[in-house]
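ARCHIVE CARD
Drawer: 12
Card no.: 0347
Subject: one protein chain, sequence and derived structure
Cross-reference: see card 0346
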Amino acid sequence: MSKVSSSNLVHDPPPQHQVFINFRGTELRNNFISHLEKALLNKKVNVFIDIRERIGKDKDIFFQRIRESRITIAVISSKYTESKWCLNELAEIQKCVLAETMEVFPVFYKVDVGMVEKQTGEFGENFKKLLEQHHSESEKWERALKFVTTKLGVRVDEKSFECDIVDHVVKDVMKAINEIPTDQGTKSPRGDIIVLPEGKNIRGEPESSSSWSSKASPFFGIETRLEQLKEKLDFESNEVTRVVGVVGMPGIGKTTLAKKVLEDWGYEFSHTMFLDDVREKSKYPEIHNLQMELLCGLTNIKYERKEQTETDLLLKFLKVEVSKNKVLFVLDDVSEKSQIENILGEREWLKEGSKVLITTNSKSVVKGMVNETYLVPGLSDNDALNYFERHAFSVSCEPSFMKLAREFVEYSRGNPLALKVLGGELLGKQKSYWESKLGTLAKSPISNTIQDALRIPYDDLNLHHKNLFLDVACFFRFEDEYHVRSFLDSSVHENVSEIKDLADKFLINICGDRLEINDLMYTFAMGLESQSSSEDSTSGRRLSNHGEIITVLRNKVEATKVRGIFLDMSEVPKEMKLGSDTFKEMNDLRYLKFFDSSCPKECEADCNLNFPNGLRFTLEKIRYLHWLKFPLKIFPRSFNPKNLIDLKLPYSQLEQVWKGEKDTSKLKWLDLNHSSKLRTLSGLSLARNLQSMNLEGCTKLETVHHELKNMESLLFLNLRGCTSLESLPKMKLISLKTLILSGCSNLDEFNLISENLEELYLDGTAIKGLPSDIGNLQRLVLLKLKDCKKLLSLPDSIRNLKALEKLILSGCSSLVSFPEVKQSLKHLKTLLLDGTAIKDIHDVVHRLSINQGQISSLSHYDLCEWRHGINGLSSVQRLCLSRNDFTSLPESIIYLYNLKWLDLKYCKQLTSLPMLPPNLHWLDADGCTSLRNIEKPLSLLLAGTEQSHSTFIFSNCTKLDQVAKNGIVSFVRRKIQLMSDALVHKNKGSILDVLIKICYPGWQLPVWFDHRSVGSELKQNLPRHWKEDGLTGIALCVVVSFKDYKDHNTRLLVRCTSEFKEENAPLIQFSCILGGWTKQVSDNPRDIVEPSGHVFIGYTNLLHVMKRDRGAKCVGTEVSFKFEVTDGAKQVTNCEVLKCGFTLIYAPTTKPVHSLCTQVYSDHGEQMSGSTTAIVEERYNQHETGATSVSLVAPTMASEITKEVQHYEAKSNVEDIQNEAPSRNNVDANPESSDHNTNGESMSPGSSGEGEVFKNESPKKEETNSTSSALPLENNTNENGTNNLRERLEKPIRLICLVISIYLGAAFVLRKDNKKRSNQ
């Protein structure tokens, strides 16, 4: 940073600083700088030195002073590079000079210019030392040092008279000041530099606050684009030549960006050149030799046309001269590759390290011609709004105009030219004018300035491409790209697309395989179409206005050269009668569509076009024919479909498409859905390229004829609802991927017609079985057999469907068994078995989870492979078992590691639930009216599952005992704590969401909700500093009464609206869904049975509240909650929130042990030292940390562990573990284990183990829960020696415990399995 002495005079700091002195060193401060400062002050020059700045301000104020100055004197000495502040100031000075807001006068004080440029000598050594500490700044500082050496300056050496140098510098400063236009010596239009008039003191008079920055029209967002372009040009590499194409739609800022690169980086090159208007100049080669112009411009030689011989000699000479130095130049507005070739030639004259920019409106122009291509993006919404505001308002956007301003910004899609022109047009206009202009933008042509710019790439198109562009804009603006390309492209080659040619020139966009035309380009296209129609009303007209269409249909003369008609029948007010020859003369008609936008499904739509005498037409050029409720029973004989590609006639009167065979070789899409009178498909045998056929709802169609056999390209066949169809003919459709036979209620036999099927829908058919060769469908992903009431069994060959991911057997009421799948269905993710007649659900789950015989070897099974599934069979993610009569689930369900969704609704005989898999996110057990017991814990809690959103619904499970409810709540608390820890350590869940939702029958809030209230509202004053000490979230709870509740809604939601109000801070509000359910189409009504009380518990993070930075202030917070039951739109009647409560969730203040399951009980009531949960958790921890050695385990510890194992085995062998009911110990509450304080503040839910922690006051009877010890935490009070020993022994001990636990778990499961087999 520059440091200047006060000299012998102390002056008051001036209000503005026009000359900034940048230097380093005490020696300079007390000598040269002090003399220079005094000389400038004597000339009444407003000079800045650091002594003028009041102490206490931030050091960054010096950068502001630089920007406020118009002249900088940079005094470079050998110690200059000792200071990062000096170099940072020099970089800032460089920016200002390049922005033409400042001049810099270098003074090289006892240092050579070459040493500064190349950083050598003492100057360079100091620089290298500084870079060791600030390596990231090297590029910026080197560029600034090189930059300053390119400016004319003065040098001070040992022989110089410093007073003469000072005089010389001051004279040049005065010259520069005098060249700046001023107004009475007080304000310059170019900036805030002033020369104080004679007689004024150093303070002078306050000047206007206007500055150059307030008058400029900056290109917002250009800095980001410059950085991106800089990376592609690779300025860091001085020996690599880079040619970069800068492409984008007209007006996007390509030229502005290229010029800015020249301004910012041109000083680093010996020669620079901006060659403009390459497109236009190339049209006149006799006038412009562009290569000669470029070379002359690079060498500063005036270009004059000469004889060819002289020109050749001059070219050779210029190439030699240019090749001596690195150059930077721009070729602006290039339209053809040949232009680049003619200008750059073989590029042999480009010295290594040169950089070239080529701007163009076409991506294909620079393809293969450049090293990199930079696609200039539109401005972001924020930058676009700022840029528009700059032009549309004299000061800033008025609040009442903000919404309209955003509408115009949205229309422009970040195009700077459109923003500038629209803003200029709206400047100073009334709000009513803005509204009127916005309403007409999409209908009327845009301004000539924008129109002319957008027309540039359009004019480069040939006539065919121009027609394609207008076709897309008028008819297919947001359609599928392949679909539109098929009937617009004239090319027969798959790898050539004329649609993509339009995208190449930014006339359209292809995003996600869909065509898009933004509002700006659409308005441009509508202007072109309007202009074309007015010039020649019969030439290729595209009609979409209903009034204009009706006129044309009635006036047959005007219809002769219509290219397309899209008529929205909802706009036709009444039935209109037309003649049979309405379309007879439309020989150029390519696109015809009659549709009804008011009814997307078209079932209730009406066609108000009436042809009482039928229709006669040829339509030889027709490619796209969509006609809602086509009135004819058969097409006219004269109709020629040879160019027809897409035929869609929903709800038509067709009985037969046409008589005889017609040339349909180009037909790809046929849609005759709900043509209820259609009886035959004859006449389509030549449609060999047909890809999709939709015959849904053709109820009279009895068979599909042999014509289908020839359709080798058919991919999609939909016969849904063809109720007269009884069977499919035997044939091989080699390309067919999707076959839909849903609802073909008379189809009693299914024949395999393609072995490449990926999706097969047979739901609602009358089939009794599947063909034995169904296993040949090696690509089948989905098999839907829902509601096949007559289906008796599945063939064993179904096991061969190796790609099958989804198997739906819901409602197959006659299906009594499930085949043994062994190891083959390794990709199966969804299995729906609700409503079947399968009795032994144990057998099904057993087959999915583990093979017969594997139980016996479980003790040797490496559980680290669990996450991949045992033998690949546990891939099922969604399992539906609702509406079945089984009484329990098998314990082996725990091995379905990937299971996320389990549906047990209306399983009225289900009495107990085993421990569920660890990744289970969603469980719905609504209506399990016999369910009493739930295993503890409800589900495994493993590393990696703590972030999964969890929803567990036990609505209408009225027989759940209190122990089961306690187990549910205990599981919730452990899950909350695990998720809370994850939020802290992994910084996840920053977006507000309810992460855990639980519902079960009950009337009481769990006791650990320490803030509670009767009714639906709760207000609480939180203690100061409540957000500190690891706050991560909040648990919410309500009790809802469903008195006489009948489910007439599609969903039920328990909503919580919260408000957090801090002192002197804005209100924070948020709303979240605490729980509820959504009724599916096949679900029974969820009528809540008596008793009707239900408890809803939810947990959400509070990170969005924590983000508010209140510093270290001690402030209080008032929080309020309001709960309600809604259907998403309105409040649900017969539902009342009786009680509500909340508790704040804090992360543990000490590091928790990874295993969150503290104690698990055996069937004997003994506490086990390890559980299945602990086994898997510890195994995962060991697997992830890589602990493999046990050699460090203390022998005494190992001995103690072995004794405990032997003791447990001895007891286990004596007692009968199968017949004795599990005892659930009710441990006394340990007051020391609770984080609940005497003031009633919140506690960590991790403080509970298997049960509940009591509050100090006596809980109500129904709130009584079992308790256990707190989660184990590391003891931070141990001495360092103990800590070190524990850390050394922790991993080996864990591994020993893991091996023992696996052995115990395997022995435990094996004994139970053997006991079951012996009882069978």
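Annotation on reverse: The two ends are 90 Å apart (CA to CA). Residues 121 and 374 are 41 Å apart (CA to CA).
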